[in-house]
Amino acid sequence: MKRLLKLFGVLGAAVLASCLLFAVTVLADSATVVDSGTCGDNVKWSLDSDGTLTISGSGDMDDYNNLSTYVDLRNPAPWYSEYGQSIKKVVINDGVTSIGDMAFSVCRSLTSISIPYSVTGIGERAFYNCTSMSSVNIPLSVTSIGSYAFYCVNGLDGIIIYGVSGSAAETYASESGSAKGFSITFEGVTGFDKSGSKWVYYKNGSKSSYTGLIQGTISDVSSSAKWYYVENGVYTTSTGLAKKAEGSDTKWYFVKNGTYNKASGIAQKISSTDKNWYYVSDGTYKKATGLAQKADGSTTTWYYVSGGKYVSTAAGLAQKADGSASTWYYVLKGKYTKKTGIAKKADGSSSTWFYVSAGKYVTGVKTVCKKADGSSSILYYVKNSKYTKATGTVTINGVKYKVTNGVAVKA
Asked: What is the distance between the alpha carbons of residues 195 and 201, in angstroms, rounded to a whole number?
């Protein structure tokens, strides 16, 4: 008995150790907040265990002095003394309007800085002597950059500033030039930047004239890269079909509210004189034939497409264009309708007349009926769900009909 209890004790300890090890592993995989505080009237800071310093809130950051050799003049940033050399990344959230003087100076492990479009000013020596930071992207919203903001006296040969041509970023780089072996160079950015209230796509620093889908990041929409629709380089919230603005891809893709969407259905081309409705599957144009709804979800109506285009004059039986169902539905004037009667296939692939009831092909039926499209008042004889040119007398639902070459009249 004692041996059994001892065995259970060993097993229990092993299970507990495994649980603790799992818990420690989970904690180790997720960054935790190390310290936090304020750095402006309405601005806060938070540092996590991965070395990411996040600045959030609204308005300007405070100015600091991390470098003065005179103790009474020093006013270091609240994170500098204890954590300055462990900060690897700085993320400034939208809403913050300026980066304070010397805010991140001498943070020698800092490699990445994210500046939002709400920032209009960068203070003096804000990133002075950040010896691990080799490049920075400065948005068009920044109109002033203080002296020595990105200067480094040791550890780096230079820094590349990415931005829009003619911006404060380019002016700062050209005026700073090179000194004491350290160079500040400007390179035109390729990507989206905010100009006033509009998102504009720039190519090598200059506004592009692209029309079509462009991949990039628009922070107002998503923090990750997506495919966006631009007209003459300006992002628009259009809905419809568009090609990619760059490259040799000739496919047509479905865009909803300016963003590529993997929808299926019919859609028109954006900014085109072509008013056809085309069928898209999984967001890409496809020459399908059959019934489909609008890709933008604006209606529940089912439309008939043939060869990828909506056919407004089509009448007859059709299956769904996406191949999701084997059921045959009746369409009239290009739209699914719950008619009853006989009809041919809408794609013209068969001369046979089939029987439909409430808009769907019905199997195994024996009846007399008119054409589903209402084009004739003649009663036709249907047997085994197909119109047949039979001759004779039949009784259907207690009524006798005389059938001559498939046409039925009451006997």
From this structure: 10
Instruction: For residues 223 and 215, give the distance between their C-alpha atoms in angstroms, rounded to a whole number.
Output: 13
Instruction: Spell out the residues 6+ positions from residue 264 whose beta carbon is closer than 8 angstroms to its own.
Output: 280, 281, 282, 283, 292, 295, 322
The DSSP bridge partners found for residue 279 are: 266
What are the residue ranges spanned by the domains of the chain?
Answer: 33-189, 193-261, 339-410
Q: Are the beta carbons of 342 and 380 closer than 8 angstroms?
A: yes
| pLDDT tens profile 90-135 | 999 999 999 999 999 999 999 999 999 999 999 999 999 999 999 9
CATH 3.55.50 holds for 33-189: no
Tokens of 51: 């070395």
Which CATH architecture describes the domain 193-261? Ribbon (2.10)
Confirm whether pTM is higher than 0.85.
no
Q: What are the pLDDT digits (tens) for 344-399?
A: 999 999 999 999 999 999 999 999 999 999 999 999 999 999 999 999 999 999 99
